[in-house]
């Protein structure tokens, strides 16, 4: 992972913090409560930055290293914020052999971010996925719920312009 991962500064609100503390207090004495607390924390903030992990660590009296280990182990958790427009490029076999790797690299170049990152303005995030079930349209990418298929590298700029 590159050093640019935290391109968007943490911007948690007092309301979010209050909501997280309510969740923690509701589960504080439950065995095995860490996973549901992390899931709800991610629902509140959209991701689990170190600031949120630290709050959970302090309130639950669980070492930060343990929390970080859980967050990085499970793919459902994200350390980086997601953009308003979540771009996902399929790198499954059918898409990859038809050039989706080139699409992914073009997006990284145009957005100046790596996979798993978010643009500093919070507009776009980029990730790779494996097979979305649209192999007949390969290569495919999605922007939120919009699916784009049979793409070439030359199509990427036009797709981004639709969301600017």
Automatic annotation (TrEMBL):
InterPro entries: NADP_DH_HndA-like, NuoE-like, NuoE_dom, NuoE_N, Thioredoxin-like_sf
Cofactor binding mode and count: Binds 1 [2Fe-2S] cluster.
Alphabetically ordered keywords of this record: 2Fe-2S, Iron, Iron-sulfur, Metal-binding
Origin superkingdom: Bacteria
Cofactors required: [2Fe-2S] cluster
Binding positions for [2Fe-2S] cluster per the UniProt entry: 90, 95, 131, 135
GO MF annotation list: 2 iron, 2 sulfur cluster binding; metal ion binding; oxidoreductase activity
Family as reported in the entry's similarity comment: Belongs to the complex I 24 kDa subunit family.
PANTHER family: NADH-QUINONE OXIDOREDUCTASE, E SUBUNIT (PTHR43342), POTENTIAL NAD-REDUCING HYDROGENASE SUBUNIT (PTHR43342:SF2)
Listed name of the protein: NAD(P)-dependent iron-only hydrogenase diaphorase component iron-sulfur protein
Organism classification: Bacteria, Bacillati, Bacillota, Clostridia, Lachnospirales
């Amino acid at each position: 992972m590159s050093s640019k991962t935290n391109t968007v500064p943490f911007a948690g609100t007092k309301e979010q913090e209050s909501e997280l503390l309510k969740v923690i207090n509701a589960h504080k004495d439950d065995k095995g409560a860490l996973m549901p607390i992390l899931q709800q924390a991610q629902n509140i903030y959209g991701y689990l930055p170190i600031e949120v992990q630290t709050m959970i660590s302090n309130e639950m009296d669980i070492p930060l290293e343990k929390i970080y280990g859980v967050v990085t182990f499970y793919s459902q958790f994200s350390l980086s914020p997601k953009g308003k427009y979540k771009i996902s490029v399929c790198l499954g076999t059918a898409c990859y052999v038809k050039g989706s790797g080139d699409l992914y690299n073009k997006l990284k170049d145009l957005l100046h971010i790596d996979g798993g990152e978010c643009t500093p303005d919070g507009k776009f995030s980029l990730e790779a996925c494996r097979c979305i079930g649209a192999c007949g349209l390969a290569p495919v990418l999605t922007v939120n719920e919009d699916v784009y298929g049979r793409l070439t590298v030359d199509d990427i700029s036009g797709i981004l312009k639709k969301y600017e």
